[in-house]
Write a structure and sequence with these properties.
Number of domains of chain B: 2
CATH superfamily of the largest domain in chain B: MetI-like
CATH topology of the largest domain in chain B: MetI-like fold
GO molecular function (chain A): ATP binding; ATP hydrolysis activity
Helix content of chain B: over 70%
CATH architecture of the largest domain in chain B: Orthogonal Bundle
Shape of chain A: globular
Number of helices of chain B: 13
Shape of chain B: globular
Number of helices of chain A: 13
Oligomer: heterodimer
CATH class of the largest domain in chain B: Mainly Alpha
Largest sheet of chain A: 8 strands, mixed
Subcellular location (chain A): Cell membrane
InterPro entries (chain A): AAA+_ATPase, ABC_Ni/Peptide_Import, ABC_transporter-like_ATP-bd, ABC_transporter-like_CS, Oligopep_ABC_C, P-loop_NTPase
Number of strands of chain B: 4
Radius of gyration of chain B: 25 Å
Membrane topology (chain A): Peripheral membrane protein
Strand order of the largest sheet of chain A: 6-7-8-3-9-10-12-11
Keywords (chain A): ATP-binding, Cell membrane, Membrane, Nucleotide-binding, Transport
Chain lengths: 348, 334
């Protein structure tokens, strides 16, 4: 974050709206963040918080007829949002790649995995089919598929879920992209396989010096692999900073709520989990002020009902740690101390 | 894997043969239960009970049904002779599907002579409606909700709801009679006179294809819309594949299965005779033969046509199933 030159990927004021019959849906609202090569940004939030839509907007995967994307996504100085369909398509799979949540349904059921991998090579590189197959074989080997010479001729349904996610990773990284977006890549997998897949992504990230955006709702994964974290709620980033900022110095009541609702094995006493009351807002009718206000236990501490009427801005409170909240610094610190003490107390 | 596929084929062919045997038996028994007496139909107005009984014996109709069925099956393989002991026996050479005493002709020959017109009609229309239905269906799906989609689907609805005898007659009236753009239809083999053949077939093809194309447009559109929302399509786009490859290679193949099913069965159904279209355009096909045989209560011919039509359907089923295995590896490998 301290490098003087422009960041590798810089997303600025990215917004996505979907016109629907019920009105305009504001799925992503003014999201900004940046990632450097070799670093991992975790985007955290509940379902419907806009994290997947943000990723698809960067990848240019949203249908332009059904959505409107504004803002910028600078990838090494070139704005992905401003590119036309064909330009951004050329970037996809070559300089930026994406893996998805459900490896069971993300591979085409009718084509051999070798064909699906080679296809990714052939669309971006001028090589022979044989050379593409060699690359596919090598990549399968690298992602830890046992006996790749046999497996390359398998169909997806002949592989386990973990193996399929490895194939997806192989396919995403086969053209050595500089940016990898992983949209909940382990959610659909068994717990033991989850760790292997995360380790694999981490190893390949080091090998290729890839920038990774890890979209997840699992704070355990965040703590394991992230360098920086952006917490999203209602289509906006409500808090962002280094992983230490978020875990040790959280300031926004929603982030605190997330941390408090995680089950912890290190607790001595069986404490009840502390879920955040209420439900995420509908993107069709977002609250006019702070999107988290309806569920926030502390909004009455802010004068003049500002949380209900005035939209808070994302404010940098120092060292790249930014918070979107009307509470003043002292109030936030007091609340955070209470919540963290309670968490630590139950574990002490 | 080749081995597994061939085992699959053999298994399917064996079950098809069994199905054919059962089917022919059922058809045979059903028709023997009909109140119509085929022996009574063998002689005209000046008929006496004695002649009827004599004919009944000559035709073997006094045998039990299963014995008759056995004679029938044997006839298919080795041919048979009706009234062998009488002064004028009737030869029916293999494959003998029965003998129409009404028409004084072997059923097999009657059907064989009518088959080319039906086959030409069915395949020509088939190609037309698949080409139009699938391409317009894809076009519509890719422009979902916009005016192009609405107009294609509107036209499809009209094509689907207009009965083919109505558009057929309208077409004949305007195109052939009023504007004289085409000569009156008169079927001839394409080997003899290709121009006259095309002039005769073009309207029936279009009329028949219109009805089916409408259905295939809707089917293809719905399939594409469903498949385009699938995760592996998103993966294909994330790989950076051009949109036309995503559509043709990934989406269309995945959405093809129900289209193949419908196409196989519809084609087979038509090979059993397109009754209305053949009648309107007076094409000498199986469909018009079937209508005539029913009008004449020509039982052996009805049985023959029913069996042939049903055989087409069973064959089509087999081919559709084999195509599934080609399209979807999960079918042949499980």
């Amino acid at each position: 974050m301290t490098s003087a030159s422009a960041p590798f990927l810089s997303v600025q004021d990215l917004s996505v709206t979907f016109p629907t019959e019920d009105g305009r849906v504001q799925a992503v609202d003014g999201v900004s963040f940046s990632v450097e090569r070799g670093k991992t940004l975790a985007v955290v939030g509940e379902s419907g918080s806009g994290k997947s839509v943000t990723a698809q907007a960067i990848m240019g995967l949203l249908d332009r007829r059904l959505s409107s994307v504004t803002g910028h996504a600078w990838l090494e100085g070139r704005d992905l949002v401003a590119m036309d369909d064909d330009e951004v398509r050329r970037e996809r799979g070559s300089r930026m790649a994406m893996i998805f949540q459900d490896p069971m349904s993300s591979l085409h059921p009718f084509y051999r995995i070798g064909a699906q991998l080679s296809e990714a090579v052939l669309v971006h590189q001028k090589v022979s089919k044989q050379a593409a197959r060699e690359q596919a074989l090598e990549m399968l080997n690298r992602v830890g598929i046992p006996d790749p010479r046999t497996r390359i001729d398998n169909y997806p349904h002949q592989l386990s879920g973990g193996m399929r996610q490895r194939v997806m990773i192989a396919m995403a990284l086969i053209n050595s992209p500089a940016l990898l977006i992983a949209d909940e890549p382990t959610t659909a997998l068994d717990v033991t396989v989850q760790a292997q897949i995360l380790e694999l992504i981490g190893n390949l990230q080091q090998e290729y010096d890839t920038a990774v955006i890890m979209i997840t709702h699992d704070l355990g994964i965040v703590a394991d692999i992230a360098d920086d974290v952006a917490v999203m709620y209602g289509g906006r980033i409500v808090e962002s900073g280094s992983v230490d900022d978020i875990f040790y110095r959280p300031q926004m009541p929603y982030t605190l709520g997330l941390l408090a609702s995680v089950p912890r094995l290190d607790q001595v006493r069986a404490e009840r989990l502390d879920p955040i009351p209420g439900n995420p807002p509908s993107p069709i009718s977002l609250p006019p002020g702070c999107v988290f206000q309806p569920r926030c236990a502390y909004s009455d501490r802010v004068a003049d009902h500002a949380c209900e009427g005035v939209r808070p801005e994302l404010v940098d409170i120092g060292g790249g740690h930014a918070v979107r909240c009307h509470l003043d610094g002292g109030q936030r610190l007091a609340i955070a101390t209470d919540v963290l003490d309670a968490l630590a107390g139950s574990g002490a | 894997m080749i081995r597994r596929l061939s085992t699959y084929v053999i298994r399917r062919v064996l079950s098809m043969i069994l199905l054919l045997v059962l089917l022919s038996l059922v058809v045979f028994i059903l028709f023997s239960l009909l109140p119509a007496d085929p022996a009574r139909l063998t002689c005209g107005k000046s008929c006496t009970p004695e002649i009827i009984e004599a004919n009944r014996h000559r035709l073997g109709l006094d045998m039990p049904v299963l014995a008759q069925y056995w004679e029938f099956v044997k006839g298919i393989f080795v041919g048979r002779t009706y009234a062998a002991n009488s002064p004028d026996p009737v030869q029916c050479s293999a494959p003998c599907l029965g003998y129409s005493f009404k028409r004084g002709e072997e059923v097999f020959v009657l059907i064989k002579d009518r088959l080319p017109a039906t086959i030409w009609l069915a395949f020509g229309a088939f190609v037309l409606w698949l080409a139009a239905g699938i391409s317009l269906g894809i076009y519509s799906a890719l422009r979902r909700g916009r005016w192009q989609d609405r107009s294609v689907m509107g036209v499809a609805l009209v094509g689907y709801s207009l009965p083919s005898f109505f558009i057929g007659l309208v077409a004949i009236f305007f195109i052939i009679i009023r504007w004289q753009l085409l000569p009156f239809p008169s079927y001839i083999s394409p080997l003899e006179n290709p121009v006259q053949f095309l002039q005769t077939m073009i309207l029936p093809w279009i009329i028949l294809a219109t009805l089916y194309a409408a259905f295939y447009m809707r089917l293809t559109r719905n399939q594409m819309l469903e498949v385009l929302g699938d995760d592996y399509i998103r993966t294909a786009r994330a790989k950076g594949l051009p949109e036309r490859v995503v559509i043709r290679k990934h989406a269309l193949r995945a959405g093809l299965t129900p289209i193949v099913t419908a196409a196989g069965l519809d084609l087979a159904g038509l090979l059993g005779g397109a009754i209305i279209t053949e009648s309107i355009f007076s094409l000498p096909g199986i469909g018009s033969l079937a209508v005539n045989s029913v009008n004449d209560a020509d039982l052996p011919l009805i049985v023959g046509i029913t069996l042939v039509a049903a055989t087409f359907i069973i064959f089509a089923n087999l081919i559709v199933d084999l195509l599934y295995a080609v399209i979807d590896p999960r079918v042949r490998l499980s």
